[in-house]
Description:
This protein is an alpha/beta fold.
Amino acid sequence: MKETKIVKVDPYEPEPRLIREAASVISRGGLVVFPTETVYGLGANAISEEAVRNIFEAKGRPTDNPIIVHIHDESWLSELVCDVPDRAWKLIKRFWPGPLTIVLKKSAKVPYITTAGLETVGIRMPSHPVANMLIRESGVPIAAPSANLSGSPSPTTFKHAFVDMYGRVDIIIDGGKTPIGVESTVIDVSVDPPELLRPGGISLEELRECLGEVRVHRSVREGIMVNDESRSPGMKHRHYAPNAKMVVIEGKLNDIKHKIDELIKQFKRSGLKIGILSLSGNMYKADVIKVVGKPYDLKSIASNLFESIREVDAKGVDVIIAEGIETKEIGLAIMDRLRKASGGHVIKV
Ligand code: TXA
Ligand code: MG
């Protein structure tokens, strides 16, 4: 077990002295957990093979899942990628800094361990003041997956980052709750037309408004883990999963409510302890009910989603039933996470 230091900072105006301490850990090849505007990240020097190897070890992450490289400034791009096509510049001008990861052809400087052997690298410029200052002060690009143990829901609070990463990293920066709550959108612009690989903080509608045609990867359309070795090999692994079994009910709200009432009766007869993730504010006769965010307010649901899954799971339920919601705007990212958390266990009504 590693000795882990906890450093609490002001998320809006982080104290430079505290951030510099964490930055020096990154420069020396260490591991730092830090807040971003999406979720907590587990960071290390992206161009040091050894530092990145430590990330995989700390998370128990399969080595065929590539890691996003976080930068402080556009000028860092030229060192990390070979070619920035016009469509990438359009995205950069409009959405950076922010929750968008752009997949580009990598330069020789980015080690293959970071990209899991791919010739492309996912790059993102976060807008969170802590992430921003940490990258700037480190002076190197920071490779950072979400700071959860591999397969678990991403941490959006200090508590959840602490539970997963204490004893595995050098420093955890406590910057409170991460505002967006789902990870960055991942778009591959090394292909034409560009392809959405993961929905997230920037919506498909916004991407299309900016670029015109954007394809949607099969794993997003179908809400399943797929085996696509050449494009994003990590997609086949299970993600966001609670310990409890999970099922997602999709359809019209009234039908969803009926189906959930029916399932509750059925699971009760089998003696199961039942948890509900309610996105509509509907109440049910279950053991644990969590209303995720403000009903119908997609942003507040996204912001509370992973925290809610962990919270219900921690009550020791056997099964979690989640209400589905429409896939417009950030609703697509919410449904993507729910479908994947359930291992594709979706009932359409
Ligand atoms: O919001 C976020 O993106 C957070 C914060 C910490 O920045 N990070 C994050 O990283 O979610 P992670 O490792 O949990 O998810 C990275 C996703 C994976 O689905 C991975 O397959 C994809 O990005 N990815 C990374 N590099 C890629 C590449 N070169 N080609 C295709 N997909 C890539
Ligand atoms: Mg992750």
